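Protein Entry — a single chain follows
Fields — amino acid sequence, structure tokens
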Amino acid sequence: MDLHSQQRNWPNFMIKVSFVAAVQTTEDSTPVVACFARIPFTKETVEACAKKALTPSAQVLSDGLDCFRGVTASGAAHSATAMNGGTVGKWRNTLHSAP
């Protein structure tokens, strides 16, 4: 059996990878720079990542998962919003990779 056939039978959690994305935007919310980190979704790991990567003036928007409460330990402001396909963060589902 090939890997693709096996994956169709695996539960979703077995083929998903947790990661956070930090995106610097302009005043009109256009993305400029993105940084991705593969980390577990725990408050402690998100806190450590935020302290390393964010300035205290950063404004963080998340989908409201409990682990993102760790962002405020870096001094950054945090707001949670429902990511339901609206205009907030509409670019978040698009990822371009260079060859």
Q: What stands out?
A: The radius of gyration is 16 Å. The beta strands are 20-25, 31-37, 59-62, 77-80. The longest helix spans residues 43-53.
